[in-house]
Amino acid sequence: MRAFRSTVVLAAVLAAFAAARAGANPPPAFQKPGEWHYQSETRYDAGPMSHGDVHNQWSVCVTDAAAQTPPSGMPHAAGVKCDKPTLQVAKGSYHTGMTCTAHSANGADSLIRTDFTFTPSPDRTSMVMDGTVHQTITGLPVAIPPAVMHMHITGTRVGACAAAGKAP
Fold this sequence. Notes:
By secondary structure, the chain is mainly β. The chain contains one helix and eight strands. It has one helix at 2-22; strands at 34-46, 52-62, 80-82, 86-90, 93-103, 109-120, 126-138, 147-159. A hairpin with a 5-residue loop joins strand 5 and strand 6.
């Protein structure tokens, strides 16, 4: 269940920023292309993993094309459907919120509401993303309480991409 929740949440956040980017006129690129290292901390304030933290880190080669959408390091997940996100731009930050739904092979349905702010550095070589995810899972034989997760993600460009073909 934890893997399902993480994949759905991460896909929803990525979809929110990508879709919000398509409807706005932000700067030419959200980040400089190259090798980026990300770290995230997810704090569960309600739900099955309440009062637990999950820490992750990963590296991604950001291509010229990928630099045009806000980074998330989050994979696309099949079956996740999202409404058009809201987008507000203020003082170099981008705020977006949206609702997504997903259905898993085991019959679980997930409703996800996101509220995130993405702030790139002025030179586009680092970023901070903060937000809250509310998730409700239904359709399983056992009731799962709604989850509230607070996410904090930082990213830093560490140089040129090490190898071609490493981009997401």
